[in-house]
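---------- Forwarded message ----------

FYI, see the Putative endonuclease containing a URI domain record below. Original note from H. follows.
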Amino acid sequence: MHEYYVYIMASKRHGTLYIGMTNDLVRRVCQHRNDLIEGFTKRYGVHLLVHYEQTTDVAAAIWREKRLKKWNRAWKIELIETQNPEWHDLYPELVS
C-alpha cells in the first residue's frame, strides 16, 4: 500500500507558505531544505515543514492539495496552528 502526503512548508512563523504533495515526504522535504528543487521554495527560503497529512488514496491527496492551495491565508495559518501552534519544524521528527 502506498502512502501520500500533503504538506505545508514555511520560511518562518507566519512567513511565506508552500503547499505540496508527494509519495516520499522525507525525500521531498530534504530536497526543499537543501534547495535542490528550483522554484518557489528555493527563491523564498521556504525550508520548515510545519504541517503534513497522510493518506493511502492518491486522488484524495491531489484533491486536498488543490483545495488547500485555494484556501485563504488565515485558514492555512489556523490549520497549521491547530496541530503545531509554535510552528516547530517537523522534519527532525520524520528522520529520527
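H. also flagged this: The mean pLDDT is 97.
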